Amino acid sequence: MSEAGDAKGVFASAAKKVKMGKRVEKALKEKAAASSSQEATEEDANKAPEPYTCIGHFDADFTELCRRAGLPPTEIPPVVLRAKRPGTPPPPDPKAKDPTPPEEPVDVAEEEPKPKTYVTKEKYSYFKPNIQVEMEHEEKPATVTEIYIRGWKIDDMMVDIFRNCFPTIEKLNTINLWNVGLTDKTLRDLAAIFPQCPNLKNVSIEGNPIAEEPWACLIGDDSLIVNLSLRHNEITDRGASGIGAALSTVTTCNKNLISLNLSHNKFSDVGAEAVVKGLRMNRVLLCLSLASNKITDKGAVKFGELLSRFPLTHEEVVERRKLLSDKGSPDRGTGKSPPPSRRAESKDRPGSVRSGSHLDKGDKKRDKSSKKKDNKHEKKNEKEDAGKGNKTVVMMDSKKDKDEGAKGGTKKDDKWKKGGSRSSIVGLNTSRHGSRAETVNKTTKGKKTTSSKDKKGGAAPESESPDMVEAINPLLDSVESIDGQLWIPGNRSIINLNLSRNEIGEAGLKSLLLALQYQITLANLAPHPALKGLMRLSLGRNPIRADSEAYQKLQDLLLTRDPFYKPQAKSPDGEVQSLVG
């Protein structure tokens, strides 16, 4: 019995040990699983989330990017539709039987219905940050066309969010930022984002004074902005100088900006002169507003010189000579020898070139007769110049330029003509230095070009259309030599100039009047299909007398320059009848 009891005890202890071992093993497994799951969760927490790919829906993209940036849902600015003024109700139908039905008696106890001209919102909701948008179709989130941000600060984090979502909005054409606390860095970052938006044309940044004044970064060579408004930014002469340099220099020019609003700023005649300097070689800008600044007669005189004519500086003369040289010899710098015709005309003819004995006799006779005529013409000019005194005026010979172009090469070698010989220049667009021309590329590979002569050998008349506009650099325009200086016609591409609410007096007014008279005279003598000249000039709220003779003349001239102006016609009875409306 004792042996049997001992055996049972041994068996029980062994079974107990087995159960304990299983429990320990189970506990160890659970512990290992818990530790592994904890490590996995830690790895998931440390692992960076996958980058978000914007889909072009601004509301969804902006909200998701803000959430990933760590903003709590209550602090993410909502994207809302921009409020619009309610439409005018249609007039009542006069044919209706009861146009004014009798009013029903109003029960004073009942609550009056809310008016439909406005929408009530939660208290202080107007002051909460939001992004207002306009859409082509409200039911389609991918049709956002305009974005308005007003009254809250755009920091670096928000700029990074815009960097991801703005370029994916296909139809975005307008960005309006008012009082958003931009800094030098955030403005430059936004300026780098704008060229990535394919259809962005209108940018308005107002009420954002910046001490560094980096406004020129918005008008870079790669800028696609067409209309730019920089009102109420406290721009001084420093900022205006940068803007003027960005508009154009001797060798560069902005090719897209056609409207610039710099009103309600703080620059003086120095800043105005810098803007004038930037418009010397710019033939793209059409509308310019400098209202509500500190411009006096000195600045107005500079604008008068810009609009009439001005002498070229030394740098501009040097650049003009380079352009003429490149135009005359397009193979310069390519290692090719110039055409034989130009070698024959050169006075410093190398010895390897044959003499004129190989010329045709008829050509020699023609050359002799032309030389005699040239000598007579030169003597006649010398006599006229001696009678006039020291002041001489010498016009460029357009025929000579045509000959040089024909001898020097084709139009495709002219870097100032956009598209070259494979394009027809039509309408109003831009070339490198501002001549507005719209190029329509027409490739002619594999096609035979027709000769300019007809079958009989005669020269075929060239079909010239008034809409054909050649993209010519202002430095290649006709010049006048006066007292040793080369003068060129001024800027006639500006059609709207606003100088109201400044400090312009009688002297500046007279200068602007002379400039307008010069443009009208030049347009009558040498009309240009694209350069129409000034059509609107605003001078209100300046210290100018209302009975000023110069002011009345200026207003009369501007009236005829108005594209919607229709002169009064006389009836057969002699009475004046207006053609307007």
From TrEMBL:
<feature type="compositionally biased region" description="Basic and acidic residues">
    <location>
        <begin position="342"/>
        <end position="366"/>
    </location>
</feature>
<feature type="region of interest" description="Disordered">
    <location>
        <begin position="321"/>
        <end position="467"/>
    </location>
</feature>
<dbReference type="Pfam" id="PF13516">
    <property type="entry name" value="LRR_6"/>
</dbReference>
<feature type="compositionally biased region" description="Basic and acidic residues">
    <location>
        <begin position="397"/>
        <end position="417"/>
    </location>
</feature>
<feature type="region of interest" description="Disordered">
    <location>
        <begin position="77"/>
        <end position="112"/>
    </location>
</feature>
<dbReference type="InterPro" id="IPR032675">
    <property type="entry name" value="LRR_dom_sf"/>
</dbReference>
<feature type="compositionally biased region" description="Polar residues">
    <location>
        <begin position="421"/>
        <end position="432"/>
    </location>
</feature>
<feature type="compositionally biased region" description="Basic and acidic residues">
    <location>
        <begin position="375"/>
        <end position="388"/>
    </location>
</feature>
<dbReference type="InterPro" id="IPR001611">
    <property type="entry name" value="Leu-rich_rpt"/>
</dbReference>
<dbReference type="InterPro" id="IPR053040">
    <property type="entry name" value="LRR-containing_protein_71"/>
</dbReference>
<feature type="compositionally biased region" description="Basic and acidic residues">
    <location>
        <begin position="321"/>
        <end position="334"/>
    </location>
</feature>
<feature type="region of interest" description="Disordered">
    <location>
        <begin position="19"/>
        <end position="50"/>
    </location>
</feature>
<protein>
    <recommendedName>
        <fullName>Leucine-rich repeat-containing protein 71</fullName>
    </recommendedName>
</protein>
<feature type="compositionally biased region" description="Basic and acidic residues">
    <location>
        <begin position="22"/>
        <end position="32"/>
    </location>
</feature>
